[in-house]
Amino acid sequence: MKKCVLSYLIALLLITTQIAFAQDVRTLYEKVRQEYESGNFATVVNLCRQIIERCEQNYPDAECRYTDVMKNVYRYKGFSEFRIFSQEQDMDQLEEAINSLIKSHELYGDPEISFNYGYMQSLRAIKLQNGRDLNGLVNAWHGILGLYARDEWQVSNDLLNKLKIFIQQSVEISITPPDSALTTGRFNSFIIRLACDLARRKNLTPADSLFFNVYYRRAIEDEFNLRGNEWRARGFEAEQLFKNDPYDSTYRICRGYLELALRFAKSTQRKAEMLKELTKVALYMEKYGRNSRRETELQYAREKASQAYTILQEHHSDISRGLENEIKKVYGNAIFRLVDYYFSITTSKDRMNSFYHARRIGEEILIPDGNGGLKQRFKWEGYEDLYLKLSDVGYELGDEKFAVDMVDKAWKAVLEINHITIPQIYSSVNPQTAKELLQFAQVYQQIAERFGLQSVLHWLRPIIKTLSQKSFYTNQKGGM
Amino acid sequence: MRFQISLMVIFVWLIVTTGSYSQSVIKTKFEQQMVDYETDVVRCYNELQKFLYQDDRNLAEMIAFENLLSIYVDRILEIFNTMERLAGSSLETYRGVAARALIFRSLTYLERSKETPENFDKAVNDYKHALQLYKKGTTIPIMNKKLPYEVWIGRKMYTRLADLLDDKNKDFNLLNSLHDINE
Fold it and tell me: Residue A138 and residue B33: Cβ atoms within 8 Å?
């Protein structure tokens, strides 16, 4: 009985195999087309393999000699394998898809296919983090030029979309892998310029025009440094997200991108800019971030700002005036905020140590003024506040010379900023300015009283009286 | 009858002129594309030189530049061959474009001949091809003819291919000797 069943099964298997093999290439090809249209990609791959196997036999069908059929068999196979890869993310499928499309291209030379397998090769390079593999870009560009020639050297909408895909992939490869530069990025930068030039031969919509202009600029800025420019662009984008949502996670991403932009920056201007941006981000995190580690962020900001300032000093001529002012501002701000931080740790067991710490931080940007005192190395927006804060520190430390020097500088600075002289205080000072000046004058008075500076108190008292009256008027007006 | 004959003559004349007109439009388009592609070849070559001049030699990028330039040269040759088949008229200008493109590719191949010895064969083939192309009915050799554009290597500008070749190393001089043999 057993033998009977076994022989029956073998016979059945043989018949089935024969039926399967009996299908000619034409029938299989028709099935491939139908299955591809139905979206049964695994079946398509299977059927294409059957066709290829049949064509490799000694006496193949006539269709095997038709280029048109065979290039489509490989094309269907390649695209189906790619669809399977998209679902399963199996790199072997991607490899198969690339090989199939290369075979199809060898048979016919369709530029569309060349673009597609170039795209897949670039995708493979990105997935495998192999930024050195530039073959995909070259093959895709080959396809693009072929399509351009096929459309009688006109840029069609389809070609425009392909150019966009191409540019985005080039950028992605230029930053792959992010932790080590395997290429200089010069080729990617060049090919993006070529792609943008080609796209601009068409009358572009404003949105498309913006797209290509942005990428062209990214490709040429900072000595054609596409990699650095891309990290910078991503850094700025992440900075916006971080400001909208100042959590540790968004902060880490933003800082990571900006640090990469700094690492790959080529020009000194760009390095200084990225250091300034890192300082800004850290200061923002310290001020608005949720669960921020204040001291760590401030120290980080101070370090980056100090590096930016060193670059500014060493390569002053390479740095624009606007950036110079910004660097000074963030450096001064970082120092001010750190001084304020140490000054305000009142719960500390060793308050004096904190005050000394604050003073040492402040002294980082102080230099001798030539009259036995100290002055800030540069003027920045808010430099008067740092003098005032340092005078507070001097007051708490009981250091008369330092406190008086600082408060005097603070007073002069606030007058200079408001473009006002002492006689004008009695006549033409507006209430808002009066309020601001009063704050400085009161600290000055406090310090003068503590250290018994009678002569200072003598000229300060009438000023404080006048400022109080004028600012009181402001308060009243505000209250009304 | 006369009227019919005149109509027929006009009809034939129209066919002939329309045909020659469309042919000249195609030719103009081809010519324009050849010139455009040559511009891209030179851009590509200049970019490669900048890259060699400023950065360390990165093989992956050098190959990519080489392949890219090769794509453009192939397209130029393709158009040139089509034009040669289409037109019986003089193609001297476009023969020059094709020859120059081939020489640029040959020079590009030589940049990597140390790493890939077969590049030298490719360079020699392109160079020979260029010389053969340009030999047909020209007085000044392609190498000595003034270029219609400038080529920059580092801070040096070149306006003749011969000068460019002279400034390169011994592999390039080998090509130069090949030039002498051909002469």
Answer: no
**pLDDT tens for each residue of A90-136:** 999 999 999 999 999 999 999 999 999 999 999 999 999 998 899 99
Q: Is B50 on the interface with A (CB under 8 A)?
A: yes
CATH of domain B2-182: 1.20.190
Please report the ipTM that was assigned to this predicted complex.
0.82
pLDDT at A445: 93
Q: Inspect the interface and report whether the beta carbons of B55 and A184 lie closer than 8 Å.
A: yes
Determine whether A60 is exposed, middle or buried from the number of CB atoms within 10 Å of its CB (0-12, 13-18, 19+).
Answer: middle
Q: Domain boundaries in chain B? A: 2-182
Residues of A in Cβ contact (< 8 Å) with B71: 138, 141-142, 145
Q: And the tokens for A61?
A: 């069908």
- Domain-wise residue ranges, chain A: 25-107, 110-224, 345-479
CB-based contact B58 A183, cutoff 8 Å: yes
- A62 confidence band (pLDDT: 50, 70, 90): confident
CB A272 within 8 A of CB A308: yes
**How many CB contacts within 8 angstroms connect chain A with chain B?**
51
Question: How far is the C-alpha of A279 from the C-alpha of A298, rounded, in Å?
Answer: 9
Judge whether A337 and A366 are in contact, CB under 8 Å: no
